[in-house]
Amino acid sequence: MEKWSLMTITVLLALTVRWAVSLGSYSGAGKPPMYGDYEAQRHWQEITYNLPIRQWYFNTSDNNLLYWGLDYPPLTAYHSFVCAYIAKLINPDWVALHTSRGYESQPHKLFMRTTVFVADLLVYIPAVILYCFSLKETSAKKKVSTCALCILLYPGLILIDHGHFQYPLSLGLALWAVLCLSHDWDLLGSVAFCLALNYKQMELYHSLPFFCYLLGKCFKKGLKGKGLVLLAKLAGTVLLSFAACWLPFGTDVEQIMQVLRRLFPIDRGLFEACMFSSPTHCPDKVANIWCSLSVLIKIKNVISPRTQLKLSFAVTFLSLLPACIKLTVQPSLRGFKFALVSCALSFFLFSFQVHEKSILLVSVPVCLIINEIPFMATWFLLVSTFSLLPLLLKDGLLLAYAVTTPAFLAVCLASFSILEKTSAEDLQLKAFSLSLKGYVSWFKSFPRIVRSLFLLSLSLMEILSILSAAVPPPQSLPDLFPVAVAVVSCLHFLLFLVYFNIVILWDSKNRGQKKMS
């Protein structure tokens, strides 16, 4: 009973923070003609409610795809329809065809914010709570609640979902999939991940670890016996899940092809993650390798879009290959969770058409291992929130950022004593250090070096945050601070990618299948 009391307090605190952030501004508020992601979600409700399904993804006189046209999979459209149905009952003006464009009012803002709260309460938060209860290392009452508190107070997700405006459903469904796999409910986990993928195509960031882990389990059971049966069941489950999601579009091949063209608009180019951004939004300032390199080399001007696609695919594939091979050969839940981090980070850094918000696809898996490597996980989550700073400033979320980020750091310091967990063993680098010749001499000072780098990193992020918020850039360099934030974040992420891959490849704890590591 005491355990649940502590968890109740944790959830109430997390909800209070979300409510406080939701009182502020949102993406594109009062900024016609395109407004922002808030208007995009409202517009999808307008379209899905008023138009037949066959027109949802097509450009028509009633559905101008240049104005926030649907570019997410069918489950997003179905969710928009459900929200629109409720909105119509409250106030038909909110989803009236054409005339509701750019609709802004306090009652409507309350409704939209409430829909995000409901999604959080029904999908994401329960998954986090059950995940923390499942962790063997956090069986103590206090540790379960503190682990949940750290995950639920991660500022990046709160600021984007309840500030900028976004639904946490795809990440929540992916988390449910991880939870199911941790209990050997492989078929349910497959269904949950298929739903996540059919809500947002960016869940492809997590697809290879799911595929490799389940394939590895089949290999381990033997492809001439139980493994083959499991493989057949998994294949059937995936096919049925996709068929159910795409059923309304399955009667017409052209419908399916149009949806796919909307989901994967290759012709936009390497950098155009958000073609329909408002004039004030600059999609090129993403903390990945291509945007950082473009500071020195204008890749868009020297490489054709098709070549950009091939190059990004090749680099992404090569960067995630080691972790995927290791996971397939030695499937374990611990390796699976670390592979989710590594593969998602590879996609973010090197793949085609990356949005700054996509870092959340890396951050949520990092939250899942915060109990194992609290120091590095906390550091990464702070950097990931910092990388969103230019977007948050445009949305008027500076105050929320300035409050939630230090608060998150304080909670992690109090919960995990992260500055005391910087040894090679704490960072799970012991096996790697033993493989290095002459490691004894400099690994003795390793904790001190890591702490110094962490403090230096925090100082640099703090300085750039203050400069971005308070100092006007030079007229000749209007994007100086967003570019600096992107490059600094990218350098951090590259080092984190190396670190996570070292942990995966030198992992000495993958001793078969575990219930939960």
UniProtKB/TrEMBL annotation:
GO MF assignments: dolichyl pyrophosphate Man9GlcNAc2 alpha-1,3-glucosyltransferase activity
Pathway named in the protein's UniProt entry: Protein modification; protein glycosylation
Keyword Transferase listed: yes
Function: Dolichyl pyrophosphate Man9GlcNAc2 alpha-1,3-glucosyltransferase that operates in the biosynthetic pathway of dolichol-linked oligosaccharides, the glycan precursors employed in protein asparagine (N)-glycosylation. The assembly of dolichol-linked oligosaccharides begins on the cytosolic side of the endoplasmic reticulum membrane and finishes in its lumen. The sequential addition of sugars to dolichol pyrophosphate produces dolichol-linked oligosaccharides containing fourteen sugars, including two GlcNAcs, nine mannoses and three glucoses.
The protein's name: Alpha-1,3-glucosyltransferase
Keywords of this entry: Endoplasmic reticulum, Glycosyltransferase, Membrane, Signal, Transferase, Transmembrane, Transmembrane helix
Membrane topology: Multi-pass membrane protein
Domain of life: Eukaryota
InterPro entries assigned: Glyco_trans_ALG6/ALG8
One GO CC annotation: endoplasmic reticulum membrane
Organism of this sequence: Falcunculus frontatus (Eastern shriketit)
Catalyzed chemical reaction(s): an alpha-D-Man-(1->2)-alpha-D-Man-(1->2)-alpha-D-Man-(1->3)-[alpha-D-Man-(1->2)-alpha-D-Man-(1->3)-[alpha-D-Man-(1->2)-alpha-D-Man-(1->6)]-alpha-D-Man-(1->6)]-beta-D-Man-(1->4)-beta-D-GlcNAc-(1->4)-alpha-D-GlcNAc-diphospho-di-trans,poly-cis-dolichol + a di-trans,poly-cis-dolichyl beta-D-glucosyl phosphate = an alpha-D-Glc-(1->3)-alpha-D-Man-(1->2)-alpha-D-Man-(1->2)-alpha-D-Man-(1->3)-[alpha-D-Man-(1->2)-alpha-D-Man-(1->3)-[alpha-D-Man-(1->2)-alpha-D-Man-(1->6)]-alpha-D-Man-(1->6)]-beta-D-Man-(1->4)-beta-D-GlcNAc-(1->4)-alpha-D-GlcNAc-diphospho-di-trans,poly-cis-dolichol + a di-trans,poly-cis-dolichyl phosphate + H(+)
Subcellular location: Endoplasmic reticulum membrane
Enzyme class: transferase
Gene: Alg6
